[in-house]
């Protein structure tokens, strides 16, 4: 978990620097656009899942059932809304435990492709943020790879629920 904590600290520093240098940056509290436009279900390493599971375990039972229902009913068409997102408030109930993909989105780019929303892309295309020092998503991906194989959020979740149910019947 120490490697993941260090990775989170590095990401938080990059995000802080971008937000400090660009007070008009779009990605901040109150914006849930990317959460409502997922192309794929997030992939998590074992360390990321362990942290996210802590957040999920702290949710009230009803809220956890709602997350489970959304994970069980993921649409086949893309984009879709993150199953963790509280739709009424546009907030993430496990924000402190969110995966690295959520932490880097809007602040990191990958060689030959942007990893940010169309709103940021249009601002960048207009030259508004020419001086931004983006984070390098390729480096993040390599660091994540050292934390173990990734699995889809819904796979982790369903395995955890099945394990929990099995343990409760013993």
Describe this structure in words.
The structure is a single chain. The chain has 170 residues and is mainly α. It has one domain. Helix content is 48%, strand content 5%. The chain has seven helices and four strands; from the N terminus they run αβαααβαβαβα. The chain has helices spanning 2-21, 46-57, 61-72, 100-104, 118-125, 137-145, 153-168, and strands at residues 43-44, 108-109, 135-136, 151-152. The strands form two sheets. It has a two-stranded antiparallel ribbon. Strands 2-3 form a two-stranded parallel ribbon. It is globular and about 60 Å long.
Q: How is this fold's topology laid out?
A:
Layout (H helix, E strand, L loop, with lengths): L1 H20 L21 E2 L1 H12 L3 H12 L27 H5 L3 E2 L8 H8 L9 E2 H9 L5 E2 H16 L2
Class inferred from helices and paired strands: mainly alpha
Q: Order of strands across the widest beta sheet?
A: 1-4
Rounded mean pLDDT score: 91
Please state roughly what percent of the residues sit in beta strands, choosing from under 5%, 5-15%, 15-25%, 25-35%, 35-45% or over 45%.
under 5%
Rg, nearest Å: 17 Å
Distance between the first and last residues' Cα: 30 Å
Number of helices: 7
Give the tags:
170 residues, mainly alpha, two-stranded antiparallel ribbon, 48% helix
Quick recap:
The chain has about 170 residues and is mainly α. Helix content is about 50%, strand content about 5%.
């Amino acid at each position: 978990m120490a490697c993941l904590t260090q990775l989170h600290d590095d990401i938080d520093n990059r995000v802080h620097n971008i937000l400090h240098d660009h007070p008009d940056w779009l990605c901040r509290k109150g914006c849930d656009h990317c959460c409502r436009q997922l192309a794929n279900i997030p992939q998590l390493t074992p360390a990321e899942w362990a942290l996210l599971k802590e957040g999920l375990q702290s949710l009230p039972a009803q809220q956890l059932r709602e997350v489970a229902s959304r994970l069980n009913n993921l649409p086949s068409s893309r984009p879709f809304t993150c199953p963790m997102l509280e739709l009424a408030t546009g907030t993430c109930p496990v924000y402190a435990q969110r995966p690295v993909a959520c932490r880097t989105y809007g602040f990191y780019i990958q060689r030959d492709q942007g990893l940010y929303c169309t709103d940021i892309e249009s601002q960048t295309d207009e030259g508004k943020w020419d001086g931004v020092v983006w984070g390098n998503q390729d480096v993040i991906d390599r660091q994540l790879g050292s934390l173990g194989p990734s699995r889809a959020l819904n796979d982790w979740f369903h395995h955890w629920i099945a394990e929990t149910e099995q343990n409760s019947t013993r």
